Amino acid sequence: MDDFFGVSGDEAPGDAVRELAEQTTRPDWVEPDPATDLVPRLRVACDLPGSPWRLRGTTLLPGGILAVDVEHARPRSPRLLADAIELLAGVAGPAFFVHHTDAATFDCVTGTLRSDTPGPGRGHLLRLRLVAPGPDGRPTLRAHAEALIPAP
After folding, report:
1. 15-64 pLDDT tens trace
2. What pTM, to 2 d.p., does this model score?
3. Per-residue three-class SS string for the chain
4. Is 91 exposed, middle or buried (0-12, 13-18, 19+ CB in 10 A)?
5. CB count in 10 Å sphere of residue 11
């Protein structure tokens, strides 16, 4: 018996998903200086009492992607994905997509759709990267497999 079902028709979010995907291909869609807008809000979210996150650095990658290096208090937690989505949702615009690309990386597209604003719609591309303290104390990217291994 098939227990899975889908949504179709007028209630489906497909139009918004297609619009977000289409907008990301426009050369002027990505905000030119994502760090100015996003880093202060990420810092506040990471500094909240009880937050499992510590902001360790940011880098602007080609294509306007803001790479955000973060440390998680419990990197092997089954809540890692939920915690990442919660952190990213704190800086997200009305349209928001997260792809857990591997155990240590979360790619996010967020912004305002043309259909939601009188302007052309703008957005951000973020890459949340899970890091750990390296032997020299500087943050290094976590080994992808290590982040998947449950804590003993």
Report:
1. 888 888 888 888 787 888 889 989 999 999 999 999 999 999 999 999 88
2. 0.79
3. CCCCCCCCHHHCCHHHHHHHHHHCCCCCCECCCHHHHHHHHHHHHHHCCCCCEEEEEEEEEHHHEEEEEEEECCCCCCCHHHHHHHHHHCCCCCEEEEEEEECCEEEEEEECCHHHCCCCCCEEEEEEEEEEECCCCCEEECCHHHHHCCCC
4. buried
5. 7
